[in-house]
What we know:
The complex is a heterodimer of chains A (about 120) and B (about 110). By secondary structure, chain A is mostly beta strands.
Amino acid sequence: ETGVTQTPRHLVMGMTNKKSLKCEQHLGHxxxxxxxxxxxxxxxxxxxxxxxxxxxxxxxxxxxxxxCPNSSHLFLHLHTLQPEDSALxxxxxxxxxxxxxxxxxxxxxxxxxxx
Amino acid sequence: GQNIDQPTEMTATEGAIVQINCTxxxxxxNGLFWYQQHAGEAPTFLSYNVLDGLEEKGRFSxxxxxxxxxxxxxxxELQMKDSASYLCAYTxxxxxxxFGTGTQLKVEL
Lengths: 115, 109
């Protein structure tokens, strides 16, 4: 595997379900990101982890819970979601969060549908 | 509100040149990124501008004017495969990106 991978690619869940999204980067990067992409809206940054420490939490509802067990893996735990949470969830990584010029590498995303 | 703006859609002809504009307003600015995103795929990096001026990379060039809060992406010799969404994003503190809504470019024969 190369680059940034995400599983599953598609997920359909009910509002009472609990599910998790997984992201893995094979680039040796120190920073990982979760973004939400909805139709007609900009990519919204949700969470940032730098060296396994959460450094950014953009007023995301508590029904989204991130976890970063090591610098290569990032999870997004989902619980009692709402239909408006249906979106494409993208994971990204970069070499160093402190450097503004670092390119972010994105995974293919998980298409989430909440019924 | 949204402080980074780009057109929603553009259409151009194969072989032509197209310019996609992006304007932004922010008190903390480090640099401006352009990403390309094909439908159903991940965004991929195209360019990064930190200084004023034009950066050329093959068929793609990107321009930045920090004083005007303005950037553009120039695509030359358009090909059908260039049909995609083009996202501009600025960095303020660290590697935190603020994205525009993206410009959906359609290349026609």
